[in-house]
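testing teh design pipeline on a random one, pls ignore if ur not involved
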């Protein structure tokens, strides 16, 4: 059964992931010339790919307290790639905030109809 609160929780978690990715990408750009710096990233597919498991469970099992993952192999940071990923992340944020706004509008409608 569909629940607005479940949907709100999932959007909230998605926004948390977007925030963590933004921090990781910003850190990558800030440390582009730092010797020994290991690139950090978040792959949303790892956390949102399986629909059978709740997102909260998968995140808590895989990530622990932080969603930022250091790459296993050392790879050179490409500023253009990082900036492109920042743009993609910005679009995801816009989509998530619009979805959250729609959920809140649905809840207001339900409340107003019930009066």
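output:
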């Amino acid at each position: 059964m569909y629940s607005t609160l479940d949907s709100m929780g999932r959007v909230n978690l998605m926004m948390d992931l977007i925030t963590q990715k933004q921090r990781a990408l910003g850190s990558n750009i800030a440390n582009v010339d730092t010797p020994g710096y290991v690139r950090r990233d978040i792959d949303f597919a790892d956390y949102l790919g399986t629909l059978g498991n709740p997102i909260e469970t998968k995140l808590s099992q895989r990530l622990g307290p932080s969603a930022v993952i250091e790459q296993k192999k050392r790879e050179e940071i490409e500023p253009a790639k990082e900036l492109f990923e920042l743009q993609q992340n910005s679009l995801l944020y816009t989509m998530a905030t619009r979805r959250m706004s729609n959920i809140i509008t649905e809840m207001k409608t339900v409340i107003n109809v019930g009066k």
